[in-house]
Amino acid sequence: MSNWIKNGEKSRQNTSFIFIMKDTLEIIDLHAGTKEGKEILRGVSLKIKKGEIHAIMGPNGGGKSTLAQVLMGHPDYVVTKGKIVVNGVDITAMTPDQRAKQGLFLGFQYPVEITGVNFGNFLRMAVNEIHDPKVKKLSPIAFRNQVEPIAKTLGFSEDIVKRFLNQGFSGGEKKKAEILQLSMLKPDFAILDEPDSGLDVDALRYIGSAINSLDYPFGLLLITHYQRILHYIKPQFVHIVVKGKIVKSGDSLS
Ligand code: ADP
Ligand code: MG
């Protein structure tokens, strides 16, 4: 009998363990570098729950963008140790599109211009691709109805989605376009790599209000070099990355 209770307790513990993992992005002792063998990340561990905002700060060259790229599975980097777990699923060996399906999103520090790809079509296909195949696909009209209010919150005119992706967008428009994608894709966990770099105060405010108006719990990893975006987006946790490691974590910058 005592044995039975013991086993019962054990399995309950296991269940709650799995339950906790379910709403979490876990980075466990992550070591990664280039394919040529240059070590960049030297043991990063971090746990982000849905609903939490974590900021990552630190000097240029510390490995912040590499962390973002490795989380999303950029093929230029190799994980040499550790793992990345999303909602209890080990994604360390997955391709970027598989990671997106597991609920990860990356907003790039330097979004690329893609001529010939219509932003709206691209985004609608991405939304349809990422969601459960059993869910009805978004029609062009349903898509437009969803995209328009978000575009407005971001200070875009609605014809932004008729243009080629990022083609001829200003620096601020490119960053806002990443946030538009985030708002439509509704990932469980979003990594934003310097969404504030090169932005004027208006664009910063637009980005802040678009992120704050997202109406579901998601985890945000906000990489930034500057403190000013933290006036608009308030992290509960701040981590400082230097030379490929988190050297300090706290609940504020002081
Ligand atoms: P941060 O975003 O914190 O400024 P990065 O992650 O961009 O830092 O870069 C960290 C270090 O890794 C830098 O020294 C950078 O030159 C190097 N690095 C990043 N990506 C590559 C790469 N693909 N090949 C070689 N070195 C790289
Ligand atoms: Mg960077």
Biggest β-sheet: count, sense, barrel? 6 strands, mixed
If classified by CATH, what would the architecture be?
3-Layer(aba) Sandwich
Distance between the termini: 54 Å
Residue fraction in strands: 25-35%
The tally of strands reads 12
Helix-strand pattern, N to C? HEEEHEEHEEHHEHEHEEE
User: Would you tell me the overall average pLDDT?
Assistant: 89
List the bound ligands: adenosine-5'-diphosphate, magnesium ion
Number of helices: 7
Number of domains: 1
Which class of secondary structure composition applies to the elements? alpha/beta
Sequence of strands across the biggest β-sheet? 6-9-10-3-11-12
Task: From the 3D structure, determine the CATH topology.
Answer: Rossmann fold
**Cα-atom Rg, whole angstroms?**
19 Å
- Uncertain segments are 1-14
State the helicity in percent bands: 25-40%
Give the class-level CATH name: Alpha Beta
For the structure shown, list the relevant keywords.
6-stranded mixed sheet; binds adenosine-5'-diphosphate; alpha/beta; binds magnesium ion; disordered N terminus; globular; 4-stranded antiparallel sheet
